[in-house]
């Protein structure tokens, strides 16, 4: 099983930063390991200070609940099955899109969390990191040029 090292985290952050730059946004990008421990974090120039905590907690949420944070948005509403989940775990659970688990053979080995723009952009930037991870480790990807996963 892949262990999320600093070297891997830096590569995922590079892919996410590239995507953020193409979108014209400044983001905070966080990578955690399978235990939710911070491996690396970057705050792009001009990114909001508040996004540091949010990005880390999006990554922690994605790894601890083994699902994208965007999946929680609907089920955390007052009519949802998990209403109030965002008040648990000392408030660390984030129900905004931008946190996505990193999987190998169905197992969660880490996660990425992104904050600093709209939820749509946060998700796009997080997906760029996930796609880089999948490309680096050959998970369910088609052959393509080196930077194609940055789209």
Automatic annotation (TrEMBL):
SUPFAM superfamilies: GlcG-like. Coiled coil: none annotated. Pfam families: HbpS-like. This is Uncharacterized protein GlcG (DUF336 family). It comes from the Bacteria. InterPro entries: GlcG_carb_metab_protein (IPR052517), PduO/GlcC-like (IPR005624), PduO/GlcC-like_sf (IPR038084). Gene3D superfamilies: Haem-degrading domain.
């Amino acid at each position: 099983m892949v262990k999320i090292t600093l070297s891997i985290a830096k590569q995922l952050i590079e892919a996410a930063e590239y995507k953020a730059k193409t979108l014209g946004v400044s983001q905070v990008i966080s990578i955690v390991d399978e235990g939710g421990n911070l491996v690396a974090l970057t705050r792009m120039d001009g990114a909001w200070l508040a996004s540091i905590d949010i990005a880390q907690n999006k990554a922690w949420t994605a790894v601890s609940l083994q699902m994208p944070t965007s999946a929680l948005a609907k089920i955390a509403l007052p009519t949802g099955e998990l209403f109030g989940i965002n008040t648990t775990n000392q408030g660390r659970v984030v129900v905004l899109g931008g946190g996505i688990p990193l999987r190998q053979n169905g197992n969660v080995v880490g996660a990425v969390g992104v904050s600093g723009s709209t939820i749509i952009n946060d998700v796009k930037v997080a997906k760029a990191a996930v796609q880089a991870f999948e490309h680096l480790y050959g998970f369910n990807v088609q052959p393509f040029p080196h930077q194609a996963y940055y789209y």
